[in-house]
Every structure is written in C-alpha cells, then in structure tokens.
C-alpha cells in the first residue's frame, strides 16, 4: 500500500500530518470482530455518535416534553431553538420545585427562563415594490447573513458569517448552502462562499462530519453530501489546485463518515447494513440515509409521536423514529419515495432504501478525490478512488435502472427490487454523468411526459399531502434536472424547464412580494403547501437557483 510518508506538499497548501490518520482511515481500517457484523438489512439503533453537547431534549427532559406536548409554541422548533438564561441544571432544579405548585404555569416558566436569539428576524420581509425578483434577490442577501461565533443554547458556534434559508431556518443548513452559493456566486459574494466552505471544514475537523445544520439537536445526522460540489464551485474563482489541495483532508473526512461500517458489511455473508452502508446481493456496497438516534426528533417531537401512535412495539417505534430521522437526513422530509404505503407516513422505511441521489453525490466526491490525487501526482491513491467511483456507478446502473419503464429509481434492499416510485431524484444520474446517452434520452422523455407541469417539474407523481410530493416543485431539483439535461445536450428541454420555473418564482413574487421555499407547479397561485410546518419565505435556495438560472438565460440570449 502506498505510504503517506511519500507525500510532499508545499506549506501553501496547508497540509498537516495530523490528517494522515483521516486519509489512512478511508483506505485501511481494522478488520471488525464478528460481533460487529450486521447480518440483516434491519437497522441497529444502539450506536451513538459522540456529541459536543446534549440537545435540548436531553438537557431539559421532562420540561422539554411538557412544553412540546402542550403546544406552548405552535412550531416545535421554536422551543428547541430558545436560549436558556442560566445553566440547564439550575433551570431543571427550579422546574422540579415549582411544578408541585397547583398554580404552576409552564408558559410563564419558559418565558422567565428562556429567550429567543433572533437579531435579524423578519428583516427579509421587507417589500420590494417596483423591483424585479432578480433585484430583490440582490438586495436580500445581506438580510439573510448571520454571525455566530459564540454558542447560544442549541445553536452551535461557527467561525465565519453564513447565509441562512430564512423563516424558521436560522442556521447554516448543509444542502441548502450549495444552492444558496449558486446565487451568491452570481452576485459576486465569493468571500461569503469561501467563509461558508470554511465553516464546513471547521465542522468536519470538529465533529468528523457535516451535521444537518449548526444545532446540537442535529448532531446525530447529516444531509445530502454536497461538499464536493461546493468545492467545485469555489474552485471556479479561487483555482482548482488551491481549493482542492486545501480541502482534500476535509473531503476524506466527509468520505470516511459516509463509508463508516463498510468493512463490517463487506466481510458479512449476504445482505447486510451498517450505519450508512448497505451491501447488495452481488457484494457491491452503496449508501443509505441514517441517523445515530432512534427517538422522536426534538424539533418535531409532537409530530413524530403522533405518527407512531398506532404502533405498540417499542422496537417498531424505535425503527419508525429512526426512519423518520433518516428521511430528515435525506432533505426530502417527507416524501412518498420513503413510504411503503404512499398515503401513510407511519409506513416510512427510509433505512431499507438505497437512494439514487445520495449515491450520485458520493460518486462525485470519489471522483473529485481521485482528481485531486492525480493533480498531486499520487497515482496509487488516485486509482483507488477512481475504482471506488467506477464500482459505485456500476452498482447504480445494475440496481437503480429499470429497462421496462426507462427510468432510474431508488432501490429497496429488503425487497431486492427498485421501488417503482418515479421521482426527480433520477435526474442526479444525468447531472453526475453516470447515465448512458440512451438512458438519458429515455429519462428526458419521461420528464416531458409525466413531470413537466405549467410551473416547472413535479417532485413526484404522488399526491398525498407530503411536501416533497405532487404538486410541489423545489428549486434544488429544478437545478439538478436542468444541469443534467444540458449535460446530455437536451438544451431545449432544459430551457423550457428553466422558463417555467422562473415564471413561477416571478409570479409569486409579483403577487406576494417575496420568495418562498416551495412552489405548487400545477395550481394557479403557484404557492406550495403540505408538510409539518407553514410555508416559509426568505428563501435561500429559491433565491440562489433563481438568480443562477436567470443569469444563465440572460447570458445564453
């Protein structure tokens, strides 16, 4: 095996020997004991990630449950985000003493002991009468910037300023950030983009992965891994060598997180799953979404408990909570793509599913690591990661393509067949370049026939009230689809999707004077709905994708 002692990088690339263990960890790990092996596709929920601090549900226990159960706040995330005025132990001592009083008022107790940290709240609601949607986006960026060098309650500190989605989302969310960056790049905010990348490098160094967002209650899960795409974007301005060499150790840390458990499943007999890894019948491994906890999500505790109300078995409830959390890690929270019964959220089985989009993102990460090693003249390591990428692409072709319908699907590893639920996640196979030209042609035809609506592309073809389903369209999926279509030369189709989507954004802006999180691409109002919380405005990834697409169309004439 190639030794890292042969590495010779200049000081300007900021390479340190402290990263050797990270790099070696992706290439060689100790062989697991038989006890570590997982012989079934069912999940093991006992494992826990090390946390920097406890989430509010753990810190405030009974008080947290009472506040959420009694709906002191209409949105469960509100209390999870409040900042305690004193130490948690002192608050809980006071709570246990006062709750014995028949006159005890939990609302007043919360008001006395917690406060909201939201110095910029509502600033993004400023009307832009007389301005275009594109001008509004340019003016909106400063209103969505947050600075948080000090931890406050569940909010984790970050060294650099960042742009938030808006509304109830006042954190640096992982996959949102890439699409926000597209708009920041269009408007020349490269220092902000680089700072947000540095925030993720900080998280990777501190936690060993990128959490959903910088909240303590998000430390058990990540989100779709867009870090490599962020680096590709940053490299267009800062240079490939400078960017990739600087962040190679962080790419490897990200990769190690997603591949944790691979050695255990590779050495097992038959179908196996561990952490975010699933071994398929042929012996190849692909990834799934997961979470290291199997309890109700703190920010949606009330909703998760309600979803589980008909389930009696504690083991089945734990599996349900894990699958809800894994669905949240996917970013598609929630969608029929994760459900056995497309109309019943309690039938969710996210951890049984190999998602096509997740594995395309990890394919890109493997390719970028291989390219970086090639630039560093490390051919053995470059070939190793190129081989990982090739194997992943081969597995996706084998298990996620359905020749009969001419479309890419998620793979149900328990049933050992594609889910048969067509979704826009198929477009990641075009965006990543894994699809053959013939496959891309058939996907494009299916998009035109079934997904293309008056206001853009539908997320799925299932109408069930979930927000990542019909009739909603989402900015990130429009971007992935458009870029994937353009990659295979389907410029007319891509242009039509872009035109319809931008028209939806502009229509809502004219009527509501704001940018929103999701859009109804079928209805006349174009205002999206569904899901666990009210429609949010701001809105980071809508702003970013719209700005990038608007400028793209302008430059293409």
Strand portion, in percent? 5-15%
Overall geometry comes to globular
**Uncertain spans, ≥5 residues at pLDDT below 50?**
1-51
* Tally of helical segments: 20
Helix content: 40-55%
Global mean pLDDT: 90
Total strands: the figure is 16
Spatial strand arrangement across the major sheet:
5-6-7
The gyration radius over C-alpha positions equals 23 Å
Q: Tell me the number of structural domains.
A: 4
Describe this structure in words.
With 557 residues, the chain is mainly alpha-helical. The protein has 4 domains: 51-116; 141-259, no CATH class; 274-421, no CATH class; 422-557, no CATH class. 46% of the residues lie in helices and 6% in strands. It has 20 helices and 16 strands. It has helices spanning 20-27, 56-69, 76-81, 88-98, 106-113, 133-140, 174-186, 190-207, 227-238, 240-259, 262-266, 301-307, 314-329, 356-375, 379-400, 428-431, 437-451, 475-487, 491-512, 540-555, and strands spanning 83-84, 114-115, 145-146, 162-163, 272-274, 277-279, 285-287, 353-354, 401-402, 407-408, 411-412, 417-418, 452-453, 456-457, 472-473, 519-520. The protein has a 3-stranded antiparallel sheet with strand order 5-6-7. It has a 3-stranded antiparallel sheet with strand order 8-11-12. Strands 1-2 form a two-stranded antiparallel sheet. The longest helix has 22 residues, at 379-400. It is globular. The protein starts with 19 loop residues before the first helix and ends with a helix.
């Amino acid at each position: 095996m190639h030794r890292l002692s042969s590495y010779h990088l200049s000081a300007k690339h900021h390479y340190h020997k402290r990263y050797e263990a990270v790099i070696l960890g992706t290439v060689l790990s100790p062989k697991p004991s038989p006890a570590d092996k997982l012989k079934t596709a069912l999940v093991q929920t006992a494992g826990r990630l090390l946390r920097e601090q406890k989430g509010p549900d753990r810190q405030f226990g009974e008080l947290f449950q009472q506040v959420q159960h009694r709906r002191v706040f209409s949105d469960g995330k509100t209390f999870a985000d409040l900042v305690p005025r004193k130490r948690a132990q002192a608050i809980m001592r006071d709570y246990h003493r006062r709750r014995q009083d028949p006159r005890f008022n939990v609302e007043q107790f919360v008001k006395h002991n917690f406060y909201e940290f939201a110095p910029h709240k509502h600033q993004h609601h400023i009307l832009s009468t007389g301005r275009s949607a594109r001008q509004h986006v340019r003016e909106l960026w400063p209103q969505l910037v947050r600075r948080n060098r000090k931890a406050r309650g569940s909010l984790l500190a970050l060294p650099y300023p960042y742009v938030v989605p808006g509304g109830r989302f006042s954190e640096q969310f992982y996959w949102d950030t890439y699409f926000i960056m597209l708009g920041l790049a269009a408007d020349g905010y490269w220092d902000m983009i680089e700072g947000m990348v540095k925030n993720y490098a900080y998280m990777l160094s501190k936690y060993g992965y990128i959490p959903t967002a910088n909240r303590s209650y998000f430390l058990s899960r990540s989100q779709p891994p867009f870090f490599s795409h962020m680096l590709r974007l940053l490299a267009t301005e800062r240079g490939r060598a400078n960017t990739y060499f600087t962040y190679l150790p962080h790419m490897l840390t990200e990769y190690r997180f997603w591949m944790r458990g691979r050695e255990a499943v590779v050495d097992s007999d038959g179908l196996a799953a561990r952490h975010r890894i699933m071994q398929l019948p042929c012996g190849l491994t692909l990834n799934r979404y997961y979470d290291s906890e199997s309890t109700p999500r703190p920010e949606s505790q009330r909703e998760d408990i309600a979803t589980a109300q008909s389930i009696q078995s504690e083991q089945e409830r734990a599996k349900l909570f894990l699958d809800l959390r894994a669905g949240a890690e996917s970013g598609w929270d929630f969608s029929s793509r994760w459900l056995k019964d497309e109309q019943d959220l309690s039938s969710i089985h996210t951890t049984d599913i190999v998602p096509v989009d997740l594995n395309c993102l990890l394919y890109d990460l493997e390719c970028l690591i291989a390219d970086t090693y090639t630039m560093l003249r490390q051919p053995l390591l470059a070939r190793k990661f190129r081989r990982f990428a090739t194997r992943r692409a081969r597995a996706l072709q084998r298990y996620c393509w359905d020749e009969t319908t001419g479309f890419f699907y998620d793979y149900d590893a328990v049933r050992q067949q594609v889910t048969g639920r067509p979704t826009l996640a198929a477009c990641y196979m075009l965006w990543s370049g894994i699809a053959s030209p013939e496959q891309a042609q058939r996907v494009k035809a299916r998009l035109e026939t079934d997904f293309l609506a008056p206001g853009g592309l539908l997320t799925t073809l299932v109408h069930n009230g979930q927000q990542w389903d019909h009739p909603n369209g989402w900015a990130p999926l429009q971007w992935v689809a458009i870029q994937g279509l353009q990659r295979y030369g389907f410029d007319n189709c891509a242009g039509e999707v872009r035109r319809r989507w931008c028209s939806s954004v502009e229509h809502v802006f004219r009527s509501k004077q704001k940018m929103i999180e999701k859009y109804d691409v079928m209805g006349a109002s174009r205002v999206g709905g569904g899901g666990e919380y009210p429609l949010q405005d701001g809105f980071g990834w809508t702003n970013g994708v719209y700005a990038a697409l608007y400028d793209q169309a302008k430059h293409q004439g």
